[in-house]
Amino acid sequence: MDHDEIIQKRVRRIATDHGCSVAEVNAALDHHPIELDRDTFLKRTLAMELVELDELQQAFRNKALEDQDVAAGVLLIKVAERRATLLGLRRLAMRSK
User: Fold this and answer.
1) Are 33 and 40 in contact (CB under 8 A)?
2) Domain map (residue ranges) of the chain
C-alpha cells in the first residue's frame, strides 16, 4: 500500500463519516489553517499542547508526590519529556553532550 492510497483511504473515510464527497473533504483540507497561516496555526497548536501537558502534570503531580504512586511519577516524567521535546530542549541538551 503506497502513501497516496493510504491518504485517499483516510479522505474517503472522513467523507463517509461526515456524509460528504471526497472533493468536499479535499476542499476543507485546502482551507485548513496550516495551509492559510502556517506560523499562527503552529504557534496556537503548540500553545494548546502545552496547556494540556500542564493539566496532565497537575493531575499526576499530587498523586505521584503525596500518594507516592510510582505509575503517576512515571507519567509525570513522560509529560516533562514531551514538553522538553515540543520546546526543543531535548535537542539542545543532546547537542551540548
Assistant:
1) yes
2) 1-31, 37-97
